[in-house]
Structure formats: C-alpha cells, structure tokens
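Format notes (please read before filing issues)

Several people have asked whether sequences and structure tokens are stored in separate files. They are not. Every record keeps both together, in the order shown below: the sequence lines, then the token lines. Line labels are part of the format and must not be stripped during preprocessing.
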Amino acid sequence: MNTRWFKTALGYGAALWLAPLLVAAQTLPEPDGVAPATPPEVMATLHDSAASSPAALDDSSATPAFTLVISAPDEIKTLLERHLELQRYRSLSDLSNDELDRLLDMARIDAQKLLATQGYFSPLITLSRSAEAQASATREVQMVVVPGEPVQVRQVRLQFSGPITTDPEDAAQRALITGTWLLPAGNRFTQAAWSAAKQQALQQLTSQRYPTGTVSVSEADVDPETHSARLTLTLDSGPAFRLGTLVSTGLKRYDTDLVRRLARLPEGSDYDLKELVAAQQRLTRSGYFNTAFIRLDTSGADPQAAPVLVTLREAPLQKVTIGVGASSDSGARISAEHLHQMVPGLGWRALSKLSLDQDTQSLSTELTAPPNEAGWRWNTSVLLQNETSGSTEVSSQRWRAGSSKEQERIDRSYYLEYNRADSISTDNTPSNQAESLSANYAFTLREFDALPFPTSGWALGLEVGGGTTLGNEHIPFGRVLARWQAYVPLTRADDSGLTDLRAGRLALRAQLGAVVVKDGTSLPSTLLFLAGGASSVRGYALRSIGITEADGTVNAGRYLATGTVEWQRPITHNGRLTDWEGALFVDAGSVANKAARLDAQVGVGGGVRWKTPVGPLQIDLAYGVALQKWRLHLNVGFVF
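Then the structure lines:
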C-alpha cells in the first residue's frame, strides 16, 4: 500500500522525538540526601507488660531444669507461654528446689499482671512442682489458671481542655472523637484495648487543627470485686494552628512557586494532616520530584501562621525508558520513551514515545506546561500512527492543543483537535482520506475504594465534542463517548465491622458511543468505533467487531454499545486469601451506522487474576458465540 506521507511524517516525527536527546544541557548534580522529615504524628506511649517483656524460650539441647505445663483456656495459655518470666530459667540446670520455689512465687505475681492486661483481675492461680528430679527425670511445674470473670467497662469520661472546648468550629471534631471511641461502656476491658482507644482519640485530635494536642489525664479505675472499670481520659488540645508560608529545601532546578502550585496548601487554612499527606502525594506524582516530605513547624511563636516545611529531592532532568511486552490482542510489543523535565527555552515537559507491535506502530510527542495557580496545565501533542483497524489499514495523524487538570478523583480537559486518516482495505481497494477539526471536553470521575485493585466503587468517563469535516465540504458533526465501570461486593460487614471477601464481587462495565453526522459523510475512521479484544468483547479479536460489508471487510461505525458482567472470586489456600482470583464473565457488544441496527456479539468464558506490582494480570479464555471459536486474552494493569 502507499503510505509515503506517513513515512515522511514518521521521519520528521523521529527527528522531533530525538531532538531533546541532542540538546547540550548541563548535567545537574542530584541534591544531597536529607533526613526525612515525616508529617506530624502523635503517638500515645503504650505500656503493656505482655508486649514489653517477651519471654526468651530456651531451645538448647541441654537438659532443662524443669518443664512447665500450663492448664488454662487457650487464650490465657498462649499468653503465659509466650510472656511468663519463669520460662527464662528452664536452662539453669543447677537450680535447687528452694530457688525454684522462690521463682514460683514470683511467677504467680507475674501471671497476675499478665492476666490483668487481658481484663482478669481476680484469677485463681495454682502452682505445684514434682519432687527432686532423679538422674533420668526432669522436675515438672504445673500451673493451673482459672481466670474468673473479666472486667467490663462501666463508665467512660472522655473530656477536653483547651480551645477545642469553646470554639464552635470544633463541635464536629469533638463529636467524631467521642462517637468513635473504641472502648465504650459494656465492653471487656483489656490493656491493649485501652491503649488503642487512647491512641485513636489522640490521633483524631492531632490530625485536625491541633497538632500539639496531648493526653493530660489517663486513668483506669478497676474494681476487682465488682469486675468493673471506670475510665477517664482528658485531651488537652493546645492552640489551634493555621498554615503559614511554604518553606522548601532541596530545590536546585525548580522554584518554590512550582512547589506551591503543586502542593495547593493555601496560607491561612486550618491545619489538616490529610491535606498535608495529599499535598505530599501530589508532589511525588508530579514527576518533578523523587521524594517529598511535608510537616508543620509547631515550634514557632505564632500558631496562626505556622511555616509548612517541605523537603524535596528532585527527579533526574532526563530519562529514557525501554519497554518490552506482549498481549494476546497485538502480539509482541517494544516501546521507547524519552522524558525531558524542562525543555530549554520553553520550560515545558516533553514526553516522546515510539511504540511498535504487529498491528500498530505509533510515534508521539507531548509538551506539557507547569500547572498554574488553579492546577490547570496547557499542553499540546502530536500522534502519528499506522494500525490495522478491522479489515482496513489506517495511517493517521492527530494534533491536539488544550488544557487539563488531574486530581485524585477527577480529571478534566478541553482541547482543539485536528484528525486525518488515510484508510485502505487489506485487499488493496482504493484508499479513503478524511480530515476533521473539532472542539472537545473530557471528564473522568473515580469513586473506587482502592487502586489499582478496586473491590468496590464506580467510575464514569465522558467525552463530548463537535466540529466539522475539512476538504471539499465542511459538514458539522458531533461525537460522544461514555464509559462506566463499577464493582459491587457480594458480602456485607458482620457485627465486628469486618467484611468476608470470599464471596467476591460483581464487576460491571458499559460503553456507549455515537457520532451524529449527515449520512454519507466521510469522517476520519479514528473518530468512529470498533469493538472486540481483552478490554472490550472477549472471544473476538481486537477491533474486529464493526460494520461488515458485502465483501466481508469490517469497517468502523458511528454507534457503539458494549457491556460486561463478571463475577470475581478470591482464591483461598488453607482458608486464607491469596493474590489470585477466579472470574466468570459474559461480554456483549455491537457497532452499527444506525442505533436501531445494533446487534450484540456475545462472548462468554472464565479466567484468573493475579495481583502484580504493576496492577492486575488478567488471563481469560473466552468463547465467541458468533464465531464458535475460543480465544485467549492477556492483559496487564488497571486504567480508567
């Protein structure tokens, strides 16, 4: 086929892609290592005798001085076997009976302390030992424990002192601390539960507005006779803090304004640990920095303008990445990327990529400006591509210019786009050339519980555009593409708040697309739709579902509808969850030039999922009902 224009464009594109590599830029040394300054964290000091004095169980081959046999409920037996100090003396082979008796008296007291940490303050502990050991025998120590009735929390007095008690803005924070208290009246008292409750309350206090808050009163009044406990905790908030000036260290190449626009921590706003953590993540995800640590300086005299200290380590100025991969849709793949963080004379980031596989060869360059005060970035890009689309070879180019804003949950962009596509059938019928110019808006909203391995939640993507064809006729058109994906857990949380994940979840997916234009209009095929492949309708080859012509060729169409219902269930081993999941699915999809003519092609099958560092590995065996053939699909990663 004749693709001379594409080859010529590819040559110019290659020169553009290689240009940043030829720039005579001075190599900047990386900033010296700095001690990480972690975000403010306040941890309660926990004193738990069971955790602070683990017993060193002797496993030597020497004959022990005695053996210890504990008779108690499993929970108590495990605690004593692990932490009883008496265990340390088993290796003393010359231990006399008198010395052992004294150790048993101490063991009784030690056991009482250990049981108290679990809420048993009136245990019955019986210790006995066998007579003097014979030459071939070892003395045996018997410990029988009846723990008795555990102590229950009868009363909780959770109080506040400091400005948090009078400021109306803090009512919600006080309600959160008291409403989520972990050890309410009626619960069994244990030292671990008491410590955890205090720790959570203090963290909830210091995570918003009051980073210097402390525990001023901590009392657990236990009455062994009534088996009850009265708890008193007073949290002293200290002064409320507001964010002051951003102070950055570690910068060599960039300025503080870039850090401020990426961090988005306005001066005068209330201190919120979650906002500092989110700002830290924005800095590291920006690509400009390898590491970022943010903390509030609470040592100053004015808590209403506390400096925000940002410690950074800049990423390399340039980076080249070579990738090799494979998929069931497009076979072996090789790619090369070059990233330049600051193009000389422009200051924008340049990302150039070359990708080759058996169906698609592409070359692209994207230039992106640093974010403005509102977080928006100007960008421009060019994509040159040659691909097999249905039964057609398509040589295309796409030029785009606009602005975008990426956030944790929402991505938005608007842009002008020029498209041109030269299409020729694989049987060498005459080519079709089409051009268009359009204005577009794209929006993505994600509400997943976790990425890249979501188990619940949903996401919605929407692309809307309108423009005109170019060439001999200028015919207006409109285009819309909507994507939706959701995960629905099949279990509910039990009384403890824990969720049993073994029943798995339903993964639902839908995609609808439409191009509204006068019949007979020639549009670039890259604006039209095809279906099929690992992320569309499984059981069919990539982009093989489209408009089937009389001669058997498949072309892109103006309307698209696809949907998926998939049951994903974790695979367990010895009753424990693994990194593998099984899946059963039904896919359906269709492409047509009239919405009324959408006739679904169906694929059914099953597969497995594996949690890898780069995202889920998807291995599926699908049966294309219309083709009556099986097809293996491989896919890696999660993108929405």
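For reference, the curators noted about this record: Residues 132 and 548 are 96 Å apart (CA to CA). The two ends are 36 Å apart (CA to CA).
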